[in-house]
């Protein structure tokens, strides 16, 4: 199973690296980072750089694509090199997936009309611009489109995808291998559980 994760400036690192770690551990799966041109791409903090080892043209027909989000998403919604590649690659994929605001790029590619999808809570309503049915859930799958909520949800999405593509035991073995046993110190990972006023403070960190 060949997976491609497209990178663009100011992507959020965990959006890409979380699913990468899960899927790269799976037997028989290969994961490639791609960009408009092969080379380094820097994340939204300006301090972490991932190496795209392929250009979009090098990987026209992956089995799976995982589109990360990040503050840079809004800058590339009209980037036809990226959006056009997503649209074209989707014709060949078994699964087309996104993490966080990466779902907006699926929308820009015209893939979400009438599809139930999710994204980061702060931009959930933006999905309706693309004719999508926006839902506040951790992971949502409809047909071959699978979307994850914000950032850390990409790990959940990748494990869910792996179970569908292979079997539950394989996904469980990967989960155990990476010791994904989350026990967050605070119950504020969602606007539904966060203290009053915390949402505004959190938005200040990502805007």
UniProtKB/TrEMBL annotation:
Domain called DJ-1/PfpI: residue spans: 2-163
SUPFAM superfamilies to which the protein is assigned, alphabetical: Class I glutamine amidotransferase-like
Listed InterPro entries: Class_I_gatase-like, DJ-1/PfpI, INH-QAR
GO-annotated molecular function: lyase activity
Pfam families cross-referenced by the UniProt entry: DJ-1_PfpI
Protein name: DJ-1/PfpI family protein
Keywords: Lyase
Organism: Nonomuraea insulae
């Amino acid at each position: 199973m060949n997976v491609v994760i497209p990178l663009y400036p100011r992507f959020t690192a965990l959006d890409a690296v979380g699913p990468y770690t899960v899927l790269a551990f799976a037997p028989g799966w290969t994961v490639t980072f791609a960009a408009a041109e092969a080379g380094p791409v820097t994340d939204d903090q300006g301090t972490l750089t991932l190496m795209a080892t392929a250009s979009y043209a090098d990987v026209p027909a992956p089995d799976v694509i995982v589109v990360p989000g990040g503050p840079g998403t809004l800058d590339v919604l009209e980037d036809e090199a990226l959006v056009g590649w997503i649209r074209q690659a989707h014709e060949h994929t078994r699964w087309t997936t996104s993490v966080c605001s990466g779902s907006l790029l699926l929308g820009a590619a015209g893939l979400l009309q009438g599809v139930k999808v999710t994204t980061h809570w702060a931009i959930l309503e933006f999905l309706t611009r693309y004719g999508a049915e926006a839902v506040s859930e951790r992971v949502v799958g409809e047909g071959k489109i699978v979307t994850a909520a914000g950032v850390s949800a990409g790990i959940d999405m990748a494990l869910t995808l792996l179970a569908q593509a292979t079997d539950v035991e394989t996904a469980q073995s990967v989960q155990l291998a990476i010791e994904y046993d989350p026990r967050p110190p605070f119950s504020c990972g969602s606007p539904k559980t966060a203290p009053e006023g915390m949402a505004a403070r959190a938005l200040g960190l990502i805007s």
